[in-house]
Amino acid sequence: MAVLVSTTVNGDHAEFACEPNETLLDVLRNRLALTGVKEGCGTGDCGSCSVILDGRLVCSCLVLGIEAEGRKVETVEGMAHGAELHPLQTKFIEHAALQCGVCTPGFLMAAKALLEKNPDPSEEEIRFGLAGNLCRCTGYDKIVRAVQDAAKVMRGA
Amino acid sequence: MPLDASYHAKSFKSVGTRPLRPDGIDKVTGRAKYGADHNMPGHLVGLILRSPHAHAKIKRIDISKAEKLAGVKAVLTAADLPDLTNGDQGMFDILDNCMARTKVFYDGHAVAAVAAVDMATAKQALKLIKVDYQVLPHVTDVDEAVKPKAPLLHEKCFTEGGESKPKNPSNVAKITEFGHGDVEKGFAEADIVIERNFKTEQTHQGYIEPHACVASVSPDGTGELWVCTQGHFVYRNHCAMLLGMDVSKLRVTSSEIGGGFGGKTHVWMEPVALALSRKANRPVKIVMTREEVFRASGPTSATSIDVKIGIRKDGTITAGKAELRYASGPYLSMWGELGAMTSFACYDLKNVKTRGYEVLVNRPKSAAYRAPSAPMAAFAVESVIDELAKRIGKDPLEVRIQNAAKQGTRSSYGPVYGPIGIGPTLEAARKHPHMKAPLGKNQGRGYACGFWFNFGGQTCTDVNVGPDGTVTLTVGTVDVGGSRASLALCVAEELGIPYDQVKCTVADTGALGHNDMTDGSRGTFSSSMAGIFAARNTIEVLKERAAKMWEIPVSDVAWENGHAKAVGSKYGNLAPLSLKEIAAAAGNTGGPVAGHAEIVADGAGVSFATHICDVEVDPETGRSRVVRYTVIQDAGKAVHPTYVEGQYQGGAAQGIGWALNEEYIYGKDGRLQNPGFLDYRIPVCSDLPMIDTQILEIPNPNHPYGVRGVGETSIVPPIAAIANAVSNAFGVRMTHVPMSPPRVLKALEAAKKTKKA
Ligand code: FES
Ligand code: FES
To answer: Is B256 on the interface with A (CB under 8 A)?
Structure first.
């Protein structure tokens, strides 16, 4: 039996009906058409489905849709303000921190969650902060540099 | 006008700059559509039933219960995919791999498929399909598979290419041989000869995006396929053949691709999706799970390689020999052959002989993985070269420099080299600051070289000038990492206009002629060559139009800096016409302005790299960590240097994962034990250091701008470089990859024991 869920997604009120065993990932992708949230594994091992739930980074493939009830979900689609990109988005493009780009939404979410907690992370803190996200294309070098640079911009340094 | 592909030195305006990629914003905002992001109205969910056995006869498949389940719209077995391959064994193997016909050959082999209204129904339907198997003995290990008593995969497999036709069938499908000179004479001339066996385990490309497609076949015989692929034209051709469709009636659109590295060069479930759609008369979407990707797409070969190399005390390598056994899954492939071709390609050898074996095993059909087959061969050869250098008391880098192939060298696989980069990358390594950096406790430094051929191939490209003078570049190679930007740079360069004025799009199969796969590092090489030719053809049209506008002979019009110019003093007062001005008038001078090119891009310049790497080994746990890494590689001409660096770094990271962690683990039952990212562990951010890169540019004489492919070579040296670093740190020679903590620990303990003894 489908359950009616009322939640906030990227600042907007959202309502959906989903099966009790349906993941938040499937709800976001299939019911709310937020396909920027990617599925790389479905088992919590790749981070490409990363979203921010009430300020906390989670793998949406490990969260049930019904758990979103009354909470706030942030996805990559909500990162930019209109045409103005989030500094992380800008820096990812500038530093070529994406090649194929399929891991990028997850990395952006993870990096955003990291910088919100720690605005001036060391390289090591960035590397460990992003260790739950797999990227097979870049070798992470340019991702780390993009995050360092975005952190600088966000600190106004 | 005949097209001149040869390189002419010039100073570039656009090429070599680093503009932002045109698909960047879509990819950081979640707007870009990948394989699984597309839907068709009313599409069904397709799922595939896979064999739990490594090797079994299919006695009977009962689909009757599944067919009766409410919501199931089609159930399919091999019976729905009749053999239309007309004696083409390669295509038959693809068909058999997509849907097993009489036998299953590996854990994960497809045996049936369903299309249903939703996922839950489709899953339930799979459970209702009953397959009667007669389980057969299996073999998954490459060395076991070549033994005379090994379980046979194909009763009719008689080794091709050996000295004589064998009497008995075996799992060795083919042997290929390369080389020249007299290796036995060479070994006799050597002061030291080392012979060793090296093993590498099977690894997966590990692209983060699982295979996905949406297929729609209509009763009138036309079809559409949306799919993540490295080559939608090849997918089209293969699917059309397997399904008995006209090539022109199947339109394939390549989605954005979430990584491929060779693994998306084969059709896997796409023909099944089309067949399901045809049977159900509805669109069908199939998205593989990660587990399916590991079990049933195409990882690279596990290998066992015997290498023998002889050296004189003065550092001259006198002979090299290798026997390379590559597991190719259940079907004939060319992985052993490529291993045999690449193994000694870095060196100038008088005497060299290599034999590649294609070995059939009960594992998934091996696919290409970035410079396929070269990393394993390089691991073996580069390890022995290091060891030999040490034995004669010479610096391994100097020994490599001394024996490096150069222009005019006859390569170990046949052709004579033109200008190449192996020597220069080695010299650059010698001078690199990395070489002087101090090493810490338990750290060692290693080097290794790598080679890859690079491919060219069939390429079809359009340049269309819009009425506002902006230019659409339409290509048929997919963008795996920024090639839209690189290709637009080349066309902007040729036309003499700013980069921003050119927009590159990847066309579907209905919009362009055939393009080969985006593999062999050919994307930028081939499509830029075709793009440059198309731009040159466009310029001819632009000149004609300018001549018309001026009412002068076209022979008096030249093209310079994006403008038509009238040449000759008699036209002194004619102001140049810009591309924009000519485009604006096109409606009155002959219609749309366009240029096309259909080519076989020959002359992909070979590619070489030298890597330097520092590894720290924890002697307590055997865990190895790369602490510093440098890639030096020849790019011919780096069209967009940032993306070239990205290719160098990405390949190195994959090689590091291969060297230290990644492996397919099969149980005694022939089932894959680790089909997920938790147990098949690819490097994460905290596993790696920054990866330094140095781009060398030794122009490829066969490309107008000197471009060589850059995508693959970077994965070739890491395994050997890391093994050499571990050896330099602890004096142990690692011969089995991955160098996982237990293997390293074992080697360290064995070394301790020999020291004590
Ligand atoms: S899809 Fe959720 S972690 Fe991989
Ligand atoms: S850019 Fe392809 S997986 Fe990260």
So the answer is: yes
